[in-house]
Amino acid sequence: MTRIPLISGNWKMNLNHFEAIQLVQKLSYELRNHDYDAVEVSVHPPFTDLRSVQTVIDADRMLFHLGAQNCHAEDSGAFTGEVSPAMLGKMDVTFVIVGHSERRALFGETNEVVAAKAAAVATHGMTPIVCVGETLEERESGDAQVIVEAQVRGSLSSLSGDQLAEVIVAYEPVWAIGTGVTASADDAQLMCAHIRSVIASVRKSAADKVRIQYGGSVNAANAAELMSMSDIDGALVGGASLEAASFARIVNFKDA
Ligand code: 13P
After folding, report:
1. Considering the entire predicted model, what is its pTM?
2. Domains: count for the chain
3. Would you say residue 19 has pLDDT above 90?
4. Which of 39, 106, 112, 154 has minimal CB crowding within 10 Å?
């Protein structure tokens, strides 16, 4: 089974819509058409930038996908300040990150909430990027695999069998996010293989298809080694995605 790697840039709460347009334009200069032969690429700007970025991608026929960082599970209603998957679908959004560790830790998102969001995203024809990952305390106490397994089972529990095969899981150990400390390629591979085996226990036929990204201080220097691992099918990149040249070098990890 060949799984096409997906390199995603999670911009988090950075860049206004003017800066966002500049970044995607710079990125499109950095990347050549053949760079997309063997990878898929997505950018995930803040909500206020989405429409501007969508327009530029469309007008200039850029080859990367538009993504969002979050959404609500409901289509519409009295949820002040929220954005629905139906709205994102209308903006040609392809991928929606759900359950990022920052949302779990800072905004109280549980596995149940994440499961509802993932199912809503899939129902609207987009692909959820479902994030899981242990904290440093959980890793040091030897519980990392158990914690991540519970997150995977809980967060994917509302997807149909067909939706499960299309999902993307991002393994992002919390201690590696924004710290400059990356999981070793071997440790990342071990956890990603574990995630795949958990998915296989739910639906065997889905496990080979599901793409599993690694995230946490990915940069141009470590991307190639991480991506060479058999169960790592891409990267979810934070800080290094805010600079066109460094993100482009990660997209072109095969040339490193
Ligand atoms: P960094 O690449 O900045 O560590 O962030 C990772 C992340 O949280 C991507 O979602």
Report:
1. 0.98
2. 1
3. yes
4. 106
On the 0-12 / 13-18 / 19+ scale of CB atoms within 10 A, 2 is exposed
Q: How many CB atoms lie within 10 A of CB 54?
A: 17
pLDDT at 256: 75
Kindly state if the Cβ of 183 falls inside 6 Å of ligand 1. no
Q: Residue 175 in contact with residue 215, Cβ under 8 Å?
A: no
Distance 178 CA to ligand 1 centre (A): 6
Check which CATH number belongs to the domain holding 109 and give it. Answer: 3.20.20.70
Residue 146 domain-assigned (yes or no): yes
pLDDT at 67 over 80: yes
The pLDDT of residue 132 is above 80: yes
Q: Domain of 141?
A: 6-255
For the annotated catalytic residues, the residue numbers are: 100, 172
Atom of ligand 1 nearest to the CA of 180: 4
Mean pLDDT of 188-211: 97
Q: Is 105 in the pocket of ligand 1 (CB under 6 A)?
A: no
Ligand 1 contacts CB of residue 234 (under 6 A)? no
Residue 183 lies in a domain: yes
In a domain, 1, yes or no: no
> Does residue 233 sit within a domain?
yes
